[in-house]
Structures
1.
Amino acid sequence: AVERSRLLDRLIDEQAAAQPERFRVLTGDRPTGPLHVGHLLASLRNRVRLQQRGVETFVVIADYQVVTDRDAVGDIGENVHGLVLDYLAAGLDPDRTTIFTHSAVPALGQLVLPFLSLVTDGELRRNPTVKDELALSGGRPLSGLLLTYPVHQAADILFCHGRVVPVGRDQLPHLELTRQLARRFNARYAGGQPVFAEPEALLSDVPLLLGTDGTKMSKSRGNTINLRDTADETADRIRAARTDGERRITYEPVRRPEVANLLRLAGLFTGESPQTVAERVGDSGAAGLKRVVTEAVNDGLAGHRARRRQLAGDPASVTAVLHEGNRRANEVAERTLATVRAVMGMAY
Ligand code: ATP
Ligand code: MG
């Protein structure tokens, strides 16, 4: 999958502008909290890049997925609103990108049913990302929703015939499942007709950004550097990041993963390689490293943050973006559902 993503990355530069329909994008986020730099680097930047080449883009805000690993949805309205602000601030254009909430598109729920028939409980239980998420959910039993959410996600990708899915590394098992479901649907229910094409994951240079505690940066883990944070909050978060006690800063991903993560993070905002950032920090130890990283992140996010503040002054326009996105997503989903029912002989 990593190899295929590299190839796809090249094809986007060579062909997407000429044949945008072959690169249609679907991706999304859970409204569990504010977006962090991992989202920007791993997924948002690629979304904007494809949009700029004229590729039609869909972004699902996966609101039902919030309760895969917790009992309540929390401040979900506020989180959804915050996601839209970050999308717009990052450069997603609502005239060209359909931004919608899962719960507003009922046909997606029905599309899940044939897909569920194409997967076994053993396959669902072996999904490594689901296992990780279960382990992190504090001793909760495995709910039916957590077990099956990769299938729901497959429906979210396939309903709009998404071909390119810009994501982080934790999503690769779900993409593999989506590809299998597309193949199995075509073979079992459509007599081999290509009703659904197999989508590809598109990874970025940061398929897995670590958080300030050295584990995957995650909205739910309190280890994030958020896009909406102030420069001072960012400095505090980076100051608290785990590093090591060596004076000389070097880029050694295996021996010094936390230091390497910070070097990569800075380099992704300044355009330097992590080695170059390390040379720049030299012998000034963890404190010097953190100063350099803080400056790189704050400078790199200044434009985003200013745009976000401005957009936040007009909440009605965020609601309008969602309503229009939901309308368009419903239209596409109804059409796909009609095709599915027709090929399955259910068009009575
Ligand atoms: P949560 O803790 O609530 O699951 P999250 O930070 O994992 O939040 P998601 O909404 O689950 O965010 O994921 C949205 C997208 O961002 C996915 O494509 C995911 O792969 C990507 N992503 C999330 N965290 C990282 C990370 N640390 N590095 C790279 N990509 C990431
Ligand atoms: Mg997640």
2.
Amino acid sequence: SDLPLILGIETSCDETGVGLVRGCELLGESVASSVDQHVRFGGVVPEVASRAHLEAMTPTVRRALDAAGVKLSDVDAIAVTAGPGLAGALLVGVSAAKAYAMALDKPLYGVNHLVGHVAVDQLEHGPLPKPAIALLVSGGHTSLLLVNDLATDVVSLGDTVDDAAGEAYDKVARLLDLPYPGGPPIDREAQKGDPKSVRFPRGKWGDGTYDFSFSGLKTAVARHVEDADRRGEPLVVADIAAAFQDSVVDVLTRKAVDACVEHGVGTLVISGGVAANSALRARAEQRCREAGVELRVPRPKLCTDNGAMIAALGAEVVAAGLPPSSLDLATDTSLPV
Ligand code: KG4
Ligand code: ZN
């Protein structure tokens, strides 16, 4: 293929991700995670993450090149997450990307992590119809985006005003004595429970915005657990997990599909770690079917943080003819889309 070979580097949180992409084709990738080093703290420790990125960078680039069957000298351009993310973690990725760009004498492109989560879908389902709506749900973000063009025109419609969706899962898991990260165990427990056993609040439901709020829900779960404790009643973890998840999934899917309808958009992409959630997928499928919207959810490995998503967005940026970043590209912990 004569499309440029893009090397993508991602280090915004606790995953060191490297991917190699041509157009919409994923040639190879590798991800090293420091999640094991954060487990005992119940959340990502920035300093620990930065150090792990530094140690993992070179071997992860090597593994991705091997997986793709290409050489470093074959790379035509380097894309890297410039933000949003953890300051020290971003700095490791951007510094590495600059070093590769300089050594190879190839252009460097700083790209947005959130838009990367959307662009990655192209590696699985082909070119994204324009416009599309994207719901990004992970441990760090909960965003609803109107994607007119991946490289040049993405509009933020709404965001969480407090906790991210995945963060809510992690905090509620801790209340229920389930392990970190809390999404998978809550998902499993919820499948055995009754979502109607408790009616938890629906944060910012029907408030006329596309914003989200999960901290009130978390507090309601905490109060429910305390009340049961005080009364000496046994805690039915499966029921609480199911009722909590029902509230999260209900609001996320309703607002996402409402945005599609309001903007006359026929495609919804759901990405980020929480996109692996079985109830979210099922409810989104049902609501999209009812609204006549095509639902695209990349496979779980592409939904969590990885380098392929950054390479996929880099390919779009190069194809759009945007100018490269300079070698003094700065990181931005709250980079807007
Ligand atoms: O995208 P990701 O791997 O990392 C970032 O936060 O950027 O997302 C991790 C988040 C965690 O909060 C985890 O609890 C959540 O995704 N998660 C899930 C599921 N699998 C992972 N949440 C709900 N259901 C799941 N099956
Ligand atoms: Zn992410």
